[in-house]
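One thing: mind reviewing this one?
=====
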Amino acid sequence: MALAVVATCALGTAVGPTVASGAGAPAAPIGSHAAPAGTVANAADVAPAAPAADVAPATPFGAGVPDRDAVDPVRAAIHPKRLAKMTLLGRTPAGSEPDGVATDPAISHDSRANRYVAYTSTATSIATPVERGRRNVYLVRRTGTVSMDANAWEVGPTRLLSVGMGGVAADGDSWGAALSGYTDRGDRPGKPRLYGFLSVATNLVAGAPVGVPHAVIGNVDGGPLVRVPTPGAATGIAIAGDSSIVAVTTTRGLYVRRGGKVRRIVGGVVRSPSVTYNGRQIAYEKRGRIYVVTVADRKRREIARGTEPRADNGAPTGGKVRGFIRAIAYRRGGEVLRAEIRGRRVLTRRYGAGVGTTLNAGGSAVAFGQGQNVRLRVDLLNDGKHGGYKLPQGTCMDGTAVTGTAVSSRYNYIAFTCGGGALILQYVGPK
C-alpha cells in the first residue's frame, strides 16, 4: 500500500511517567496481582523509557504454572498453539495482572509495526500517581525486534498518560484513547505522533472545564497535554494517521483541529468519530445513523442506520478519492455489520451478534467480541473473497465476556479487554 507522506506536528519534548515491565518479570497468568508500582513524583523528574534490553519480552499465558490446566477448564479447552499466541498486555511492573479493569483498547496503525497500544484502566498497580477508583489512560510501547512481516509483539514500557500538572494524580476520570500512525510508501510504517483521550479531570491542562468531558492531546514522545477547545461535552476523539487533524465529537457537533485552529464541521449531538489517514474524511454517528463527511467542503453522506462506526484508513491511491473512506464497521441492534462504499452503492455484510467492533486500516478485517471469544472476519474489498478467520482469535481466560477490541493495520494483532478486567494481545500471525 503506497501512501503520500504528510507533515506531522509535535506538542513537546518532556517525558511523562513511565513504568517498564520489569526486567526478567514474565507476564503472569490472569488472576494474579502484584503490589502497586513505586511513586513517580513529577513528570519532569522521570527518566526516559528503558531500553529494549532492560524490558522483559512477552511471555505466553501459563508460563511457570504447569498445573493450571487441571484447575482451569476454560484454559484447558484452548489448544496450546492458540494459548501461546495470547499475551497479557495490561500488566504491572512485575508482569502480573493489575488490580483494576481495562477497557477501550486502541492500536496505532503504523503498517505492521503497530508500536503502541493505548487503553483505559481503573487499576492502581500499573503506574503512579493515580487515585483509587479513577479511570486513567495508559500507553504501552512495543519493544524488541520489529519486522516488516509482523513478528510476535513484545511488551515494552507502560506510560501513564493522564497525569495532572506538576506530576500529581488526575482529579477525574480519563478514557477513550485514540492514536495516530499510518502506512507510508513501500508499506513502511508512518510514525505515530499524537495520542488523545477524553477526560473530566480539571488538573491535566490549564483552563479545563469543571465537570464537563473534554478532549486532550499529547505527543507520544512526551511533553505537556494540550486541550482541544470545543463547545459542549466531548463524546469522542479520533486522530488522522498522519496527525494532520484531530476530530472531536461533542453534544454540540463535530469539530476539527488543524494547526492549532478549531472549526465545526457538523452540528448537533455527534458521537464515535473515525478519521482517515490524511484527514480528508470522517465517519461519525448522529441520531442512530452513520455518516461520512468530507472535511474540506463539509459535504456529508448517510451510509447506514447504526451506532459505533469504525472506518478504514481511506483509499491509499486514486487522486481525488485518496483518503476517502471505503468501509465502515458498525453495530445495529446488537449485530455487527460492515458497509463497503463503492461509489454510489453501499454493500452491507452481516456478521451476527457482537460487541466492541473495530475495523483494520485496509477495511477488510472486522474484529469483535462474541461471548468470551474474539472473532475476526476478513472479506476483501471489491472482490468479496473471504480470508477465513472465523474461528476464535482470542479468549477471555477467566470465562467472562469480551468487552472491547482493537485490530491492527493488517490484522496481525488484536488487543481485547475482558469483563474480568484483563487486557490481552492476540497474535494472529505474520504477513
Notes: The mean pLDDT is 85. The chain has one domain: 18-427.
